[in-house]
Amino acid sequence: MNSSTKQKLDIQKAESSRIGQVDFNNLTFGSTFSDHMFECDYKDGEWQNPTIKPYGPLTISPGAKVFHYGQAVFEGMKAYKDDDGKVWLFRPEENFNRINKSSKRMAIPEFPKDIFFEALTELVKIDKEWVKKGLGNSLYIRPFVMATQVGVSASPSTEYKFMILMSPAQAYYTGDVKVEIAEHYSRSANGGVGAAKAAGNYGAQFFPTNLAREKGFQQVIWTDASKHEYLEEAGTMNVFFRVNDTLLTAPISDRILDGVTRKSVIALAKRDNITVEERPVSVSEIVEAAKNGNLKEIFGAGTAAVISPVSAFSYHDTVYDLEHQDNGFAMRFKKELMDIQHNRSEDPFGWRYEVL
Ligand code: COI
Question: Which of 109, 119, 260, 278 is the most exposed place for a label (fewest CB within 10 A)?
Fold first, then answer.
């Protein structure tokens, strides 16, 4: 891996803030950005010129490889403000490790840890007014890397741009979602990029998700690419099934994202002596459990949505409804996670990371 450049972080502040123009009670997820962003270029074999600057457009050649081959990866993380005005991140080291793991899979050079953490914490400090208090409010943080070398030869870029943007957020999905179990399209395959947060991995979901939407389902539950027999992820999230009082979720593999919310839910469940089975979960056992009344809950788990309960799923054109559980596992883990994230409860696992 390239070593840290030990270069000084250049900070260029915006002349004025746009925060007064933002209605924080009516945010569309990921469409409003804070005053500043971070940018760092990879050239001549090293990351250089780490800079925080006012948020704004980039000038990039249309010949840059990212536009032709999608050589790009990203992360999703959040900053939270507690009732005393302190700002926290949640398990940021996990996101740092994962973006480098995703980069490796996409032949992108890894990013140095010291620059990542200095840039991230400085950026959050500079734009701290953009983190609003209150459960459900957060500043969604989007680190990403893209290939900027000009040239359409199909080979890894020699130049990259690493950036961090920040966007004030409220809930990602509002209400319970209806999902369709994938029977034709696939999200990932053995040996593919499913475990990476590669940009194209998400773009490839848009078309099948649109087809599901036309039928009245907001998301797709992805199944294994070979036979569509096993349940793997839900939309952009990991997925959990509660059968009676046992929690089931697919094991991490090269098809499945090692989600930070996923592993946090598993840790909370195990702490509370809930049986968790990380194993292939078949469509047939979940359909069977739905028919005989043992399927109590399905929920997605991800950074953007935290926990997203599923109200119905469709398989072979039959819709199976799930009763909303105010006191179920989904709502309980969501509250426990949000309380930790917002510094409203103890942090027994040491997940909170204080920024200021
Ligand atoms: C996240 O939960 O961070 C995601 O990856 C969702 C994102 C695609 C909006």
Answer: 278
Higher pLDDT, 277 or 173: 277
CATH class of 177-341: alpha beta
Fold (CATH) for 10-169 = D-amino Acid Aminotransferase; Chain A, domain 1 (3.30.470)
Q: Would the pLDDT of 7 be above 90?
A: no
Average pLDDT over residues 252-277: 97
The encoded tokens of residue 334 equal 């969501």
Q: Measured between alpha carbons, how far is 87 from 124 in angstroms, rounded to an integer? A: 8
Domain ranges of the chain: 10-169, 177-341
Give the pTM.
0.96
- Nearest to 240, CA basis, from 328, 172, 320, 162: 328
The protein residue with its alpha carbon nearest to ligand 1, atom 9, reads: 304
CA distance 141 to 121: 11
Rounded Cα distance between 345 and 263, Å, is 19
Ligand 1 pocket (Cβ < 6 Å) reads: 76, 202, 236, 302-304
203-209 own/partner pairs: CB under 8 Å, 24+ apart: 203/70, 205/235, 205/236, 208/182, 208/184, 209/235
Find the 94 Cα to ligand 1 centroid distance in Å.
Answer: 14
Separation of CA 306 and ligand 1 centre (Å): 10
Q: Residue 2 pLDDT more than 60?
A: no
| Token pair in block for residue 177 | 């979602």
Q: Which residue's C-alpha comes closest to atom 3 of ligand 1?
A: 76
The pair of structure tokens assigned to 283 is 């469509």
